[in-house]
Design a protein that fits this description.
Blueprint lengths: L5 H15 L4 H10 L4 H13 L5 H16 L3 H10 L4 H8 L4 H16 L7 H14 L4 H21 L7
Helix pairs in contact: 1-3, 2-3, 4-6, 5-6, 7-8, 7-9, 8-9
Length: 170
């Protein structure tokens, strides 16, 4: 088998990487650079792949936001950071994040807190607030929203406990 030209190598590398999962242009450019593909060859192949739709950073960003918000409950701030790390242009990041509105983000925060609430029972109220708000902060939720959602969940839990009939053991 004759040795491949740099263009053939670049195409093969990109296709192999794109077979596993979608990638951003920068992720592919970085992979080609690591494998010693000349910059001009890399740019030519990547531009062609963009033209034919094999690379679409806008679609990548949109799918990433949808998937990571639903699957992991990540907020806009965390999603933006992940997309920037993957080399998605700031404009495309902003467009992708517009899929999420504040109400949807807050609803996801409430769901995350509800899931975690039971595991913090028995702890002091302040400690519960710190743990639950910390969990939301690590997922990129703004501090004000995190504290509001946690306090509301704890108030609801307290009200539910008051409404629940006590077990008399009989």
């Amino acid at each position: 088998m004759p040795p491949q030209s740099p263009e053939e190598q670049a195409r093969a590398i990109c296709l192999r990487l794109l077979t596993g999962m979608p990638r951003t242009r920068r992720q592919l450019a970085d992979a080609l650079e690591k494998r010693g593909i000349p910059e001009e060859v890399s740019q030519e192949v990547l531009s062609r792949y963009e033209e034919v739709g094999l690379i679409d950073d806008a679609a990548f960003a949109g799918a990433w936001v949808e998937s990571r918000h639903r699957g992991r409950g990540l907020a806009r701030r965390a999603l933006a950071q992940e997309l920037r790390t993957k080399g998605v242009h700031a404009t495309l990041v902003q467009e992708a994040l517009e899929q999420l509105d504040s109400e949807q983000e807050e609803e996801t925060a409430r769901e995350l807190v509800e899931r975690k609430l039971r595991s913090t029972r028995g702890l002091e109220r302040d400690k519960r607030i710190r743990r639950l708000a910390g969990m939301l902060a690590r997922k990129g939720y703004p501090e004000g929203m995190a504290l509001r959602v946690v306090r509301r969940a704890l108030e609801t839990e307290d009200a539910d406990d008051v409404d629940a009939p006590e077990y008399s053991g009989g």
